Amino acid sequence: MTDEKITQYDVSIPKEEHGSLTWEEHKMPAYCSVNKALAHFKHKEVFGWHLAIVIECEAQLTTGQPTPEEKEIVDKFCGALVTKLTEENNALFLAKSTWNGCYNLFLRVYDPYVADDYLKSVLEQETNPREMEYHMEQDKEWKFAQHYIKPFEKTDIM
Whole-structure pTM over 0.85, yes or no? Predict the structure, then answer.
């Protein structure tokens, strides 16, 4: 037995509330839906892993945004990923953006092994309708999330 201290948290998961961000990068528009409730989330240390999933679109407009048909296919897949990853409060949806022919999903994760096992199974079973990759990194201070939540820190979401 080790002397490692186990910290328990009583965490209240905030109801998702979406806000929008737009910006331009390399002369292409980016559109982003952000769970702005996380800007005021008190227990950020519990979800100390940043998960980024990139899904490549097959059909896109000249602006780099997906065609309506492509958007329908990828939105359905993204929804399924988020539903599974957020099961039992193992992850929190942070943001979804589209830019330059890609969908980017960002989540904050409690147990990285659960998320990693699930995403590996998706890739191994080839159940994804489009090419995808993911990267997960420990980020206890939420530095990778700041781009998305900072614009909402001064807003009242009550």
Answer: yes
Strand order in the sheet with 49-56: 18-25, 28-35, 91-99, 102-109, 49-56, 132-138
Spatial CA neighbour of 86 closest among 124, 47, 123, 122: 47
Does residue 14 lie in a domain region? no
**For residue 89, pLDDT beyond 50:** yes
Tokens 């989330």 — which residue? Answer: 41
What's residue 150's pLDDT? Answer: 94
Instruction: Say if 12 falls within a structural domain.
Output: no
Domain count, the chain: 1
What per-residue confidence (pLDDT) applies to 158?
Answer: 47
φ/ψ of 6, rounded to 5, equals: -100, 125
